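Hey, can you fold this one?
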Amino acid sequence: MKKVVLILSLLYGFFVFSQEQVTVFKGIQVTGIAVSDKGRIFANFPRWREPIPFSVVEVFQDGTYAPYPNTAWNVLKTNQGKENNTFVAIQSVVAEGQSLYVLETSNPQFKGVQDHPKLYVFDLNSNQLKHTYLFSKESYHKNSYINDLRIDIKRQLVYCTDSGVGGIVVLDLKTGTSKRYLDQHKVTMAEKDQLNCSNGIWKNTVHSDGIEFDAKNDMLYFHALTAYTLYGIKIDQLIKNDASEIIAIPTAAPDGLIMDKKGNLYYGDLEHDAIHYLDRKGKINVLTDDKMKVKWADSFAIHKDYLYYTNSRINEATGDIKELDFTIYKMKLKQ
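Sure. Predicted structure:
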């Protein structure tokens, strides 16, 4: 009888939590992922080391991939970072409607911002660039690393985190202007200078990193990477630069954030190779702690009740990474 119960339990776990590998990048460190309304998958690769073969790819259903939107965009010819129509140091990609938003840090290898951070917007129907936004100099610092972004369609605003110098940057898609909020405020700053990961101590200080926008409740969530507190702020309070009514929730140390249509907020537990979620009742749950398949869950996307995530293995990628596998997985979420 015990064997039957065990088998049923394992089968239940398989059907509810089974994870499928979407693709693998050998020796190429992936961070961001986006999945469009039509199921097109995109991933990006930061310029944290040289050389990298491409900055953005589209991943096809058979697991193969190709530079997006083409090879030319992905070949950096100089180190000046001022070329037109060339990716320099891409950190994040987000698909919204018929557009792909590509966040250009302009800060290769964390050596300082060259020119301006940028936001490229591509038309997914034509795969052509339709707009380039330059972040204004007042909205970033020389050592900023504009890290992640979320789109507010109603207001036509883009909310971004700065993990190099804690803060939130808001880009107005209508006017092209950008402003900085909560600059070096305690809620956007790291709490620790290290994490205790599965392979040992990872020493670093990373400020506001993961971000998610809850459009139903006009709430912006964000989290420093080397920290254990998730913050939530109403958009009208953010625009006032007022953190007096901010929500603070203790969590594990995560990288990216994403919310499903039910209001569950997913994030990685970087120190324990797991993925957690905060439900609408305020309870924290473990989605998966499969240490063979979760290796620094970095960024997330949701499409048709599947959670997609990248494994950037940041705690392991400290030297020669040519033999490391960097993967994208997907798993079915509970209905």
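The longest helix spans residues 2-17. Let me know if you want another pass with a different chain boundary.
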